[in-house]
Amino acid sequence: MSSELGIRGGAILLVAAFTALLAACGKPKLEPPKIVDRHAHCDLATEKPEAITDAVAAEPVARALRAMAERSMPNLPRDQTARFWAVKLPCNEMIVAWLFGRHFCGTGGCNLLVWDASGGRLREIGDVSISWGPVRLLGERHNGRPVFGSWTQGGGIQPGYERAMRFDGNAYPKSMGKEADVRMAVDVPGILLIGEFRKLDEGLPLYSEQGNPG
């Protein structure tokens, strides 16, 4: 009798296990977790920076720079000699521009601006007030954005050094605060975006000869 009960109990367990197996096979497979940073693959090997040298193509950037100038210095006359250099990062969908002019530079450097260019529009995510070239794209990311290297010199800083510009989740640091002043090692790999100080005639005019109101 006991052996018969044992056989019956074993059969019940076997059926239960088979039923559980069928149920597991019928369940949909779990989807892999979504990538929060959709540009995470855009490292140095994938990014191909494109210098923006055509005035027509650069007009959206010039317009954004003029808006910044009007916003931050509304009472100053326009600097008709101001020039800028801009680079597009296609993979990261970003644009970086360095602005040179008497209203935009001091002994510590000039304005360096960064925009998110996704969706066909420019959304400002960085306005670093004191920066010299070279400006480089480095191989790491922080809070979903690439880290840039920017040269710092002057204004009491001698000799100069390269510092890291890291995205804090909302923007790149505006100035060299204690948290932003991160000195880079001299051998950190990167891609050159904007070189050292160039001749003014190599940059694009911020304002057209006709005094473009933007």
Largest sheet entry: 11 strands, antiparallel
Strand-pairing-aware structural class: alpha+beta
- Note the run of SSEs as H and E: HEHEEEEEEEEEE
State which percent range the strand residues make up.
Answer: 35-45%
Helix fraction, binned, reads 10-25%
- The domain count comes to 1
Q: Total helix count?
A: 2
* Alpha carbon gyration radius: 28 Å
Q: Tally the beta strands.
A: 11
**Shape summary:** globular
Structural commentary:
The protein has one domain (50-205). The chain is globular. The protein has 214 residues and is an alpha+beta fold. A hairpin with a 2-residue loop joins strand 4 (105-106) and strand 5 (109-116). Strands 1, 2, 3, 4, 5, 6, 7, 8, 9, 10 and 11 form an eleven-stranded antiparallel beta sheet that branches. The protein has two helices and eleven strands, in the order αβαββββββββββ.
Write a brief structural summary.
The protein is α+β, with helices and mostly antiparallel strands and 214 residues long.
Task: Give the SSE layout.
Blueprint (H helix, E strand, L loop, with lengths): L1 H25 L23 E3 L6 H14 L10 E7 L4 E7 L4 E2 L2 E8 L6 E20 L2 E10 L2 E9 L16 E2 L6 E5 L9 E2 L9
Keywords, please?
disordered C terminus, 18% helix, eleven-stranded antiparallel β-sheet, single chain, alpha+beta, 214 residues
